[in-house]
Amino acid sequence: MDIALGTIPFGTSVGMDETFAILDRYHEAGGTRIDTANNYPFWVEGCSGDESELAVGAWLAARGTRDEMVISTKVGARPTVPGDVTLDSAEGLTAEVIAKGVEGSLQRLGTDRIDVYWAHVDDRDTPLEETLGAFDAVVRAGKARAIGASNMAAWRLERARNVSAGHGWTPYSYLQLRHTYLRPRPGSRPAESGHRLVNDDTLDYLAAEPGITLWAYNTLMFGAYTREDRPIPDIYHHPGTTRRLAALREVAGELGATPNQVVLAWLIGGGVVPIVGVSTMEQLEEAIGGARLTLDAELRARLDAIC
Question: CA-to-CA distance for 203 and 218, rounded, in angstroms?
């Protein structure tokens, strides 16, 4: 199944019994990718940021499924000031942080390796050589199998990959950005600190670099496609959104699917791995349906044609 399961609320707002049930169903449906981080959900009162990794690790240990799963976790955005719920005190991507961070994640996840280890947010204060050398050391030690860049501009990703190539180091082969069917206004920024959006330059770069896989987060916009209590984010307020929503709902009606499912199918059909965060079994079942939905060439062309 070509979706990754987002795990931010696991072990906190989603209790352990429900967490296990969701992970069991995802695994049963053929899902293999689990996405977490070493700081989820630090911004919630009373949370340290350990909770999501600990919940995932508990499930892996209880079910014995480690070798069947692709475990994705991140380093670099854990706060260094107690009580900080912003990224103002983010730990960054120094060699020391990466070396210490991987050990903490391995311990919480109860595993000896991470399948995709991400730089959570770009750190422009630390030289790329230091960051990438540290990630390469983690891979050479067998503690990670591949590395990815999250919330990084295309030009920075290209520069980072050139640095790695010049030193014979492991390159970033994954990119994680915020992406969905709706297109944001040019130049707009999301309200959420640290989020970086896919843009046309990103897509153009990825088309020319087939060795990089895009994982997309916030794919369903916190439920805004289908829930009246979840407004469309401000960055999508422009006439094109009205046209895209109409096309999306039209296609969904023809297929007997939900708009959320069509969005997921559209992303997957474009070679993107959507990360879907769920907190209920109903949300997971809808996502599974989206992963199994196929858009033919005519439907995809109709969706793509709307500006």
Answer: 17
Q: 3-state class of 191 per DSSP?
A: coil
- pTM, two decimals, is 0.97
Enter the tokens of residue 37: 């981080």
Q: What is the DSSP letter of 264?
A: H
- What whole-number distance in Å separates Cα of residue 245 and Cα of residue 7? 27
Cα separation, 204 vs 224, in Å, equals: 27
* Spatial CA neighbour of 6 closest among 279, 288, 276: 276
Q: Per residue in 33-75, pLDDT tens? A: 999 999 999 999 999 999 999 999 999 999 999 999 999 999 9
- Answer for the pair 202, 260: CB distance below 8 angstroms, yes or no: no
pLDDT tens digits for 78-94? 999 988 999 999 999 99
* Among the listed residues 29, 23, 24, the one whose alpha carbon sits nearest the alpha carbon of residue 1: 29
The neighbouring-strand residues paired with 197 are 178
Dist. CA 90–CA 27, nearest whole Å: 33
Q: Residue 11 belongs to what H/E stretch?
A: none
User: What are the tokens at 111?
Assistant: 């595993």
Say how far residue 179 (Cα) sits from the centre of its chain: 10
Question: Chain-centre distance of CA 25, in angstroms?
Answer: 20
